[in-house]
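USER:
I would value a second opinion on how I read folds in token form. Give me a protein, with the fold worked out from its sequence. Write it directly below this note and I will take it from there.

ASSISTANT:
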Amino acid sequence: MNISFHSLHNIIIVISTMVYIFMKINDIIIIIIHFYTSFQVFEEVNMLKESIRYQLHNSGADLVGFADISHLNDSRYRGYNTAISIGVKLFDGIVDTITDAPTYMYYHHYNVTNLKIDQITHQGGVYLENLGYKVLPVAASQKDPHAEPDYNAFFSHKTAARLSGLGHIGKSALMITKEYGPRIRFGTILTNLPIEADTPMTENLCGNCMVCTQACPANAIVGVNFTLGSPRHSIYDAHKCHDHIETHYQKSGGGMVCGICMQRCPLGIEGKRGWSPDHEDDY
């Protein structure tokens, strides 16, 4: 059979076109498979995240958030890209016993709450470790009087809580949440779990309020709003606070706690939580 050069040329063009189309279809199929696989992985990770959140809530946590800490430049956290923030609220009835000094009832509640948080982070750590992840539960209370110059702890629970969207740092240097104001304590689990972080809270509820500044018996609260990147001493003098507590509250607070600024904060009062004091008429 004789095939002209022109016909052969057309056949080659058709075959080339079919090969090109086949390659493009193959590329599209690969993209679809990759997208589907990625979607499945995302769904599995999201399910794991909610499973962890449920487990921690079931263990007694009132607030749970997930933060990305991979950007923190500290060799002590190397290998840990995620911080899970756990908040446990304080009882209003006990906080309200604080007036011009801490009460022994509050001092006891403070310690019991810290113990509860440590138990929750331990249980959460066991859960994650059993799934094959590396974990480092950070104790609720890590105050080290020898950690100069600013009594800084191994890891800041407020950093994890802020980055995970549970609240913002107030003028008092306490974590302010919409749900409970500052009447809450935190613990943290550091882990290498690869998970999507929650969205940090950008709103600042303190506004122009100066209640905590005026209430502080140690004059430790400067009275300015926290700004990202600012050192703690720009809003709060930890030394003044520590020295006042140690000097004045040995009997009522064991020389360890005060709580006056927390008790006075309008954002912790039921019915006013989640609202900026700038929007309130009076306190």
Confidence is low (pLDDT under 50) at residues 36-42. Residues 63-277 form one domain.
